[in-house]
Structure formats: structure tokens, C-alpha cells
Amino acid sequence: MEKIIKKELCDISWQVDEPTYRADPAISYSTLSSYAKRGIKGLKEALEGLKISSASLRHGSAVDTLLTDKENFENFYIVANYLRPSDQIRNIIDSLWEKALNENIEESLRQFSKNFPEAMLMIINEHGYGGDNWRPETKIKKIIESGEEYYNLLTLTKNGKELIHQDDYALALACVDEIKNNQYTRWLFEESENSKIYYQLKFKMSFLLERVDSEYLINKYSPKDWEYSLLEEDTIKCMFDIIHVDYENKIITPIDLKTTSFNEEDFGDKAFYDWYYDLQSTMYSHILREICAQDEYFKDFKIKHFMFLPINKLNLNPQFFIHPESSTPQQNVFYDYMGRIHKPWYQLLEEVRWFKERQDFRYMKSTVENNGYNII
């Protein structure tokens, strides 16, 4: 078959490394979802770069890296077999390690406890560890007993790597292997001369572009100054886990990998709404449509509905979930199964821009505009 690829999608992507992408001030889905889920506090923490860590997030990151950037896995992770502390003790050790890094304390955990017992005890108490009748020495002793090996291994992560337990690494590998070989998902990785799969493609869009499907946004919601603004805060960005491009039939399929604690078949009823993935699919699809529409070669390509690919590390039953609304520029406000309001991404974007411009996170926009009055 004659090769017909004249230009690749990666050629019109934003070609920067991940640290540059993360550091750029353009607004992303993660910022919008933090605001949607946790209000002003969540937005402030997102804009300040606060990193939230959990076992599920660490697992998801490992699976994502192994699937989409395996050749660089060792640059990001250190795999080790160690005594696994409880989540509470791990959080305490993480806080102690962060303090050691910030204050250039190059000591073992035992030395830390001898030289800085007050600082160590303060962190332990901040995490609510131990009974009210426990002596300070007892609390410190138990932290050392359960977390010393983990703490000392963290000294290997000074260059920015993350420590991952051997068991967690095995679970992540199993997820990737299943995704690549499962009867319902393996087609995605079967490339041909005229189709390609891309990982971690990044795009950044200002509002200077000639909008192709954004008339609704402009007339209904978007402030007119977006059209002419060159400010970084008036740009949006996204990074796709996977994009499959069928160059022969001119079809682009965006896909996002999701590790989930829900059963995979429940993803569309629960996780999708709990994590506000509707914002991701509609915003990402909008950016991709607009960027492609500006290119002479890709303007004729069809952007298919955004798809999610969830997998539970215990079930290992990956499957696709299609979000049809991602292909249309208009998204109405709706309430999910828990009664939580979901606003369109562009409405949230305007509110986030308002906060960024004011740098005041005390009150919502509606409260300020109504001079402190609200209607129940």
C-alpha cells in the first residue's frame, strides 16, 4: 500500500518537554477541575502549584508512564522492595523528607530524630498520629520502626525521581500488558503504514485563532477581549495521553487512559462525573479541532468523539467509553448523579481568569458583583 502520510499530527503540536508544559501559566483542565470540585480553595492551591499525592494517583502515573513513555521510565522512577509503611506514616515520612530537602538536612531518619526532635514531633502531630496519652518518644520511635527504610530510600530521589514499590510496579506492568493485548483494546496499538499512534502530544491555544466551531462561545459567553489578548493567562493548554490518527481515512481519535478504583463498567456512571472528566473531553476536543482547522493539511480531518480507556488494577478489564458531547462546541450546565453542578469548561475558564486577574480568592465573582448579597 502506498504511504500517504504527508504531514504528521506531531508537527502541529506544541513541541515542549513535560516540565516546560507543567510550568507554563496557560490554563489547563486540572486547574478548571480543581476549581469545579473544590471551589476557591481548590483553585488557589492549583494556581500555587500544590501537588496532591495518593496511592491511586501514584499508580495512575506509573501506568501512564509505562504505556506512553516507557523508554524514560527509569528517568522518573526508582523501583525498590521495602517495608511498606501505612498511608498515615508514609505521609509523615513524606513531610519529613520535604522538610529535609528544603532545609538541606542530609541525615538518616534516626539522625533527624536526634538532632531535630521538636521539628519531627510537630510534623507527627500535624498528621494526627498516635494516641493522646502517647509520649513524644513513643511516637518518634514508632515512626522510625515503620518508616526508616522508606525514608532512607527517599535519599535516592533527590534528582526528582519517585520511589515506587516493587509490588506496585508489577501491578502497573500488568495493567499495561492487558491494555496492549486485550481483545477490545489491542487494535489501538496495531499501527499500519497509514495510521499512527501518538503519546503525550501537547497543544496550546490562544484566542487569536480564527474560530471554526466557537461561535456559540463568542456570542454566548466568552469576553470579547479574548479575541485579541496576547496574555499567557488567556491561553489554554492540554496534553493527550493517546491520539490515534488514520491518515488514509482522515480520522483523528483522542483517547485518555484512566486508572480507576471503580469497576471498569461503572466508569461512565461514577468516575466520569466524580472527577469532572466532561471538562477534559470537551476542552481537549475543542483545542484539537481548532488547532487542526488552522492547518491546511489537517483541516479536512474528522475529530472523533473523545474516548476514555479505564482499567482497574485488580479487575484488568479495560474497555472504551465514548463521550459524544465532546464533538460539539456547546455544552449545557447539568447536574450529575450526586446533584453536583457541572458547568461548561469555557464558563469555568472565564471565572478562573477573573480570579487570576484580581489575585483575590476570598469571594466568588457573583458575591463581589452583587456587593455581598446572594440569593438562596
Summarize the topology.
Layout: H1 18-23, H2 29-47, H3 55-68, H4 73-76, E1 77-80, H5 87-102, H6 109-115, H7 117-126, H8 136-154, E2 162-165, H9 166-181, E3 195-199, E4 202-206, H10 215-221, E5 235-239, E6 242-246, E7 251-259, H11 271-274, H12 277-293, E8 302-303, E9 306-311, E10 321-323, E11 334-335, E12 341-342, H13 345-358, H14 365-369
Parallel strand pairs: 1-2, 7-8, 7-9
Antiparallel strand pairs: 3-6, 4-5, 6-7, 9-10, 11-12
Helix pairs in contact: 2-12, 2-13, 3-9, 5-8, 7-8
Can you give a write-up of this model?
With 376 residues, the protein is α/β, with parallel strands linked by helices. It has two domains: 9-50 and 195-369, Lambda Exonuclease, Chain A (Alpha-Beta Complex), CATH 3.90.320; 65-168, no CATH class. The chain has 14 helices and twelve strands. Strands 3, 6, 7, 8, 9 and 10 form a six-stranded mixed sheet that branches. Strands 1-2 form a two-stranded parallel ribbon. It has a two-stranded antiparallel sheet with strand order 4-5. The protein is globular and about 70 Å long. The protein starts with 17 loop residues before the first helix and ends in a 7-residue tail after the last helix. Mean pLDDT is 89; it is low at 223-228.
Key descriptive features of the protein:
Lambda Exonuclease, Chain A, 14% strand, 6-stranded mixed β-sheet, 14 helices, two-stranded parallel sheet, alpha/beta, 376 residues
